[in-house]
Design goal:
Two copies of one chain form a homodimer. Chain A has ten helices and twelve strands. The first copy, chain A, has helices at residues 6-13, 16-19, 65-83, 101-117, 171-179, 192-203, 209-215, 229-240, 263-272, 288-298, and strands at residues 28-30, 37-39, 46-54, 86-96, 121-129, 135-143, 162-166, 221-224, 242-247, 279-283, 302-311, 322-325. In chain A, the strands form three sheets. A six-stranded mixed sheet of chain A has the order 8-10-7-11-9-12. In chain A, strands 3-6-4-5 form a four-stranded mixed sheet. Helix content of chain A is 32%, strand content 23%. The longest helix of chain A is centred in the first third of the chain and has 19 residues, at 65-83. In chain A, strand 4 (86-96), helix 4 and strand 5 (121-129) form a beta-alpha-beta unit. Chain A starts with 5 loop residues before the first helix and ends in a 15-residue tail after the last strand. Chain A is of the alpha+beta class and 340 residues long. Chains A and B meet through strand 2, strand 3, helix 3, strand 4 and strand 5 of A and strand 2, strand 3, helix 3, strand 4 and strand 5 of B. Strand 3 of chain A pairs antiparallel with strand 2 of chain B, so a sheet runs across the interface.
């Protein structure tokens, strides 16, 4: 622990956008160090997403600094992917229980790396002391693809649309089981390769930005499945006022889960496990070949997993909105991650 | 404590911009309830400020919900005042140790009231559970007055400029003394009227937005004195690379402090007390009459308190940048509120 001031911390660890300002960040008129940041006006509507990670709630205290950085950014950029929007700027509210320069160095290095990878400028924030565990809130700002503000909403699913998901499922819950095995669970024989792949995708969720941007004007609704497949399908269903039926046998289960695991556990992880950061989206059937071409171009599998079947009657209970069929599939677990 | 979900909380307490959406918020294309918010493109550069308030650090646990709301917003809008910018939209990261519906109702009512007063739309955020005290981070977004991005910076003070301050000084430190008297301090006889005035300005700092906006193109540098007069004058001095001399006898001490208080205590509060939320600014001497007219029009006193005397040599120590003269004035206390 040292006696660095807030200004020292910002200058030493969080001015990387200022010091490496390339042409992509030329739009930053006032960066870190004034009362507020100012960036050049952009022509398309402004997109904003805020996410908070709390030590002891969203990650364990032993989590490495670089993983805190990559998860914080991954979660937020995944919201941008789900909107089909382009991230541009970010502010960070960082509350630290103490000043650990090794931690700050590792955290800031990874943060800078991801900012560069996704072309996001860190333009401001607030660094404060907190008595208990670390809290980090990122607010990412950016813009829609078009001047009219066209983006991917949750409320546009139409009867007859196909339901799609990107990547594979069950990764988030499986990684959590590897990191914090539940006491009553059966031993899980997971091979080394799968294990490192699962942990990597947990530590650094890869936001599906290119897919989301490619789906603007093609998909009718989209969401990232950070709360779990069923819970997030339910968000689309409720906001679009439709019913969704999912074909359990079509679900792209992550290959690392094809082991000695109990079938029911796998199903639970796939349907209700959060921390997935894939995109769940709906699209008219005549968009299938376009989506398949996009999937091929991005080398990111997209799988048709269901259908929007009918409009929801206003008095219908929430539990009726999404169901799963397929031998042995059970749609009990509608609820995903709840924040309280 | 109840079992409200995150969605219930947002719907019940934080959707006031959606439900009361008047023409001023017509620019909100996607509000609360999707992966991110989208607002209409604006023509002027984007201004962003983030501030965090932490229970036990920035306010005591017994603080009322409405005061948490007004201080959180006041602090952030004060940053906008110091930039001469116009706030428009806000996201909130709210981390709650438990769900107290009375607290949430009072908090949201005051938040909605201030949003309406300053024409700010709450467009999104993240509501999460935390194990210990409450944490609230607000990110306010808005725009500069002009298309070119003209705003009030900290780095524009020029040799020969006058130094000005709005309102009166010592309010923040005095209010803190009333709320949390230090053990070793002398008893302070503060009359009822002054007391309620001091506490009111602490609970709801009034951001000097109209003044800041009026000073764009007139003041050469500006800052809000949330860290204390000397510390914030030092920020202007260091960023402008100038020396500032302040006339102690010219400082507008708050009338509530003209009591039995020890002169040294008053000076300490005036020079180093934080939580002031007045604007400290510099301007060429030929702008004096314009500033006086603005002050009159806004019914907000602005006082000339010093001068920018010379350029700072690069190797000059920070402690040399700001000094106070005047019989009995002592500029020892350069440091204001430090965040660590």
């Amino acid at each position: 622990m040292t006696s660095l001031s807030e200004f020292d911390i910002i200058k030493r660890y969080f001015s990387f956008t200022e010091t490496s300002a390339g042409p992509s960040h030329a739009g930053t008129l006032v960066g870190i160090g004034d009362d507020a940041a100012v960036v050049a006006a952009h022509k398309n509507p402004l997109v904003v997403a805020t996410d908070t990670l709390i030590e002891g709630v969203h990650f364990p205290p032993e989590f490495l600094a670089k993983h805190v950085a990559s998860r914080a950014m991954g979660v937020n950029l995944s919201d941008f992917a789900a909107m089909g929007a382009t991230p541009r700027w970010m502010t960070m509210a960082l509350s630290l229980p103490h000043i650990d320069t090794d931690w700050l160095a590792a955290f800031s290095q990874r943060l800078a790396q991801i900012c560069q990878q996704y072309n996001v400028a860190l333009i401001g924030g607030d660094t404060t002391r907190i008595d208990h565990g670390l809290v980090i809130s990122l607010t990412v700002m950016g813009e829609t693809q078009t001047r009219s503000g066209l983006c991917l909403r949750r409320n546009g699913a139409q009867v007859g649309d196909d339901v799609w998901v990107s990547g594979s499922l069950g990764k988030g819950a499986a990684a959590l089981q590897l990191l914090m095995p539940s006491k009553n669970s059966m031993p899980w024989i997971c091979n080394k390769e799968s294990k490192s792949e699962l942990l990597a995708s947990f530590y650094m969720p890869e936001p599906r930005l290119a897919l989301g941007q490619g789906l603007v004007g093609i998909a009718s609704a989209a969401i990232d499945i950070s709360d779990g497949l069923m819970a997030d399908a339910n968000h689309i269903a409720m906001q679009s006022q439709v019913k969704i039926i999912i074909d359990g046998d079509a679900l792209p289960i992550h290959s690392g889960l094809e082991t000695n695991l109990n079938r029911q556990i796998v199903q639970q992880w796939v349907l209700s496990g959060g921390d997935e950061y894939e995109l769940l989206f709906t699209a008219p059937t005549d968009q299938s070949s376009t989506i398949e071409s996009l999937s091929l171009a991005l080398a990111l599998p997209c799988t048709k997993i269901g259908t929007v079947t009918e409009n929801l009657k206003e008095d219908k209970a929430e539990a009726d909105s999404v169901s799963v069929f397929g031998a042995g599939w059970d749609s009990q677990s509608l609820k995903g991650y709840t924040h309280f």
